[in-house]
């Protein structure tokens, strides 16, 4: 869930928070930047023209051409960071599916690596081109595009949901025509066929969205402010301290992962199975699993997100599932396995889906309505920046920043024919390639996906002709289009605010996407081969959303007959409940609305459990206490600490995978037993 995008909802809607102050002029006026308000006390970035001029700081500097922004050293750094971030996103994908925005981390590390390189070259007299904010933006764009494929590629969702491993967890529609096991060759081919279409689909909208209607794009805006601050004297000093802090916690997190490995010699062993609140709570997935990754995620996500996840965990695993489990033999057959969609698993999966759909539908209608209303209002007032004299009879007064940024943004435009030709060409290739990979997907199914909607395409195939697999493949096509398109628009906003050429942003995104289409499958393959129980509910890497996506595809093919008794009624309740909660949030005063939990965040632990929610709340608690003790340091270094915890634990998966492939097993099993079970074990061992 992403949220990649944040704008990945979860791959999407968590944003990195942080405050950065940069010295604007000799008078030492400062500019404070915070992320969008999500109920955690920050203010929204409405428009940069309400802030002191940023471009005056860089006035007089030579602006590199779009070709000069695309340097070999930038892409070398992007490749290295892309591999690092792909491991992180892949681990998050295969554990809980919650992925925070990593844009700030990418920008910070890109600045550090290339700044260090250029300083070394300068001392040796070999520096030919200085390091600029435009090159920094290219690195950030490329890295996020590369690691984004680890999310949109479906390795923890639709793609792995096709596998016999996930299909075998239930008895529903797991025939051969509805399964396809992972293979490097077809995964790479599929990603190259579908991952570039979204980039061409949004090119015609870039001027309308960014210049004419000045849409905020919070992640892109926050990242741009960050990169701009790095390239000022004061900001560079702060960035150096942030990198040092990130490095310390990276080392701690990596070593903590290494230490934990020694105690995981068998199933159910190690700190990740520590029954923090007792064995009964542990059976209902309430425990702290000592994950540095999700403590870091909790420090990045707003407080309201983390509390919402915890509330959802208590509601589902603390109340609902124990009560429904007591109806075993009445609501569903007592002979069904725990993983059957006709049993308890069905309630977990489909109620969670219903809540997410209710929240998504409400916000889609809300955003669409406000967007249309905003377009109409802007059109009536003609508050657009004219491209030529005849574009608008009414000129408006714009800030210096807007003027210089708009001039560059329009100068290095991308012709409209490139967008249409690219879209048609890639769509034609997809219609030829995808049916070769998935025989259930006819070329006209793919055409329908591009023109109408994915739902029609997989319903058309039907269960007996591999409709479940076709539905997952259709999901993959649309997910890649939407994800890459949203990423590119965020990058265009970042590029606009850092005076980076749209052409360099576009080519950087293409190169990063191509890197991701190669790196992500290889990283996934390493996980797949190293951890034989990958995808199993009891595994270290359960890939929970693979089962969820497969369940949605089954529901699309079989209809509501796939649901257990009373599940549809409960789905209606939670679907409309999500809408009502959102309505309440939007109608009451803001000072009270920030205390009402978010339905989509609440829905995540319905299926996964509450262990990661506790980790995230620990992260929030650390940041909260730190903020009370020293708010300035917490704001400046909180994201760096969180990024270090996430990166260190994430990169530990590389050596742990290598150890597993080499057959090296941990020496100790640390397991927790009840007093009665322990007595039985002692008697058995002593007999």
TrEMBL record:
It is a multi-pass membrane protein. Residues 1-48 are annotated as: Disordered. Coiled coil: none annotated. The keyword Kinase does not apply. The keyword rRNA-binding does not apply. Residues 17-31 have a biased composition (Polar residues). Pfam families: OPT (PF03169). It is found in: Membrane. Keywords: Membrane, Transmembrane, Transmembrane helix, Transport. Its main location: membrane. One of its GO terms (cellular component) is membrane. The chain crosses the membrane at residues 70-92, 98-117, 138-160, 184-205, 249-274, 294-324, 345-365, 414-434, 443-461, 467-485, 506-528, 563-584, 604-626. Residues 1-16, 39-48 have a biased composition (Basic and acidic residues). One of its GO terms (molecular function) is oligopeptide transmembrane transporter activity. Belongs to the YSL (TC 2.A.67.2) family. This is Putative metal-nicotianamine transporter YSL7.
């Amino acid at each position: 869930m992403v949220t990649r995008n944040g704008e990945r909802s979860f791959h999407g809607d968590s944003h990195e928070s942080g405050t950065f102050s940069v010295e604007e002029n000799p008078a030492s006026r400062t500019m404070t930047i915070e992320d969008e308000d999500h109920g955690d006390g920050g203010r929204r970035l409405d428009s940069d023209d309400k802030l002191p001029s940023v471009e005056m700081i860089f006035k007089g500097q030579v602006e590199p051409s779009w070709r000069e922004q695309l340097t070999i050293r930038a892409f070398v750094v992007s490749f290295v960071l892309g591999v690092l971030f792909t491991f992180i996103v892949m681990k998050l994908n295969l554990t809980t599916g919650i992925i925070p925005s990593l844009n700030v981390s990418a920008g910070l590390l890109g600045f550090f690596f290339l700044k260090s390189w250029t300083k070394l070259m300068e001392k040796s007299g070999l520096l030919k081109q200085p390091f600029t904010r435009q090159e920094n933006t290219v690195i950030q764009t490329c890295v996020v595009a590369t690691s984004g494929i680890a999310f949109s590629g479906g390795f923890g969702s639709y793609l792995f949901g096709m596998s016999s491993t996930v299909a075998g967890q239930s008895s529903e529609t797991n025939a051969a025509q509805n399964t396809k096991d992972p293979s490097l060759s077809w995964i790479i081919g599929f990603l190259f066929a579908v991952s570039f279409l979204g980039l061409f689909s949004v090119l015609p909208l870039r001027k309308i969205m960014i210049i004419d209607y000045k849409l905020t794009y919070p992640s892109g805006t926050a990242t741009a402010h960050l990169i701009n601050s790095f390239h000022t004297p004061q900001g560079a000093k702060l960035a150096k301290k942030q990198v040092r802090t990130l490095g310390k916690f990276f080392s701690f997190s990596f070593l903590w992962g290494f230490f934990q490995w020694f105690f995981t010699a068998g199933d159910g062993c190690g700190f990740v199975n520590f029954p923090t609140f007792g064995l009964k709570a542990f059976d209902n997935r309430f425990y702290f699993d000592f994950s540095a990754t999700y403590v870091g995620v909790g420090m990045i996500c707003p407080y309201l997100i983390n509390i919402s996840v915890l509330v959802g965990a208590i509601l589902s695993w603390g109340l609902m599932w124990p009560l429904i489990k007591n109806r075993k033999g009445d609501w569903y057959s007592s002979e069904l396995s725990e993983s059957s969609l006709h049993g308890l698993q069905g309630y977990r999966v489909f109620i969670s889906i219903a809540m997410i759909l209710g929240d998504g539908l409400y916000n889609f209608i809300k955003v669409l309505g406000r967007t249309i209303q905003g377009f109409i209002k802007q059109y009536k007032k003609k508050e657009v920046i004219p491209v030529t004299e005849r574009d608008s009879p009414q000129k408006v007064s714009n800030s210096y920043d807007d003027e210089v940024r708009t001039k560059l943004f329009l100068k290095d435009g991308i012709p409209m024919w490139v967008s249409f030709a690219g879209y048609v060409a890639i769509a034609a290739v997809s219609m030829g390639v995808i049916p070769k990979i998935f025989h259930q997907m006819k070329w006209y199914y793919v055409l329908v996906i591009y023109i109408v909607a994915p739902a029609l395409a997989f319903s058309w195939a039907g269960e007996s002709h591999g409709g479940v697999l076709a539905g997952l493949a259709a999901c993959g096509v649309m997910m890649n289009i939407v994800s890459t398109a949203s990423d590119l628009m965020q990058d265009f906003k970042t590029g606009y605010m850092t005076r980076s050429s749209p052409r360099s942003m576009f080519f950087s995104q293409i190169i990063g996407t191509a890197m991701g289409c190669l790196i992500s499958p290889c990283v996934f393959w390493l996980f797949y081969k190293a951890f034989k129980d990958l995808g199993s509910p009891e595994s270290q890497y359960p890939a929970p959303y693979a089962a969820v996506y497969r369940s949605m595809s089954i529901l699309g093919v079989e209809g509501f007959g796939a649901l257990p008794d009373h599940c549809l009624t409960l789905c209606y309740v939670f679907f409309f409940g999500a809408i009502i909660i959102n309505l309440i949030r939007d109608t009451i005063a803001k000072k009270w609305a920030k205390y009402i939990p978010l339905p989509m965040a609440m829905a995540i632990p319905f299926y996964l459990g509450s262990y990661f929610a506790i980790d995230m709340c620990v992260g929030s608690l650390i940041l909260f206490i730190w903020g009370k003790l020293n708010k300035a340091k917490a704001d400046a270094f909180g994201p760096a600490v969180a990024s270090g915890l996430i990166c260190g634990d994430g990169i530990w998966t590389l050596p742990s995978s290598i150890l597993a492939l080499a057959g090296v097993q941990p020496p100790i099993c640390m397991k927790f037993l009840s007093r009665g079970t322990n007595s039985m074990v002692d008697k058995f061992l002593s007999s």
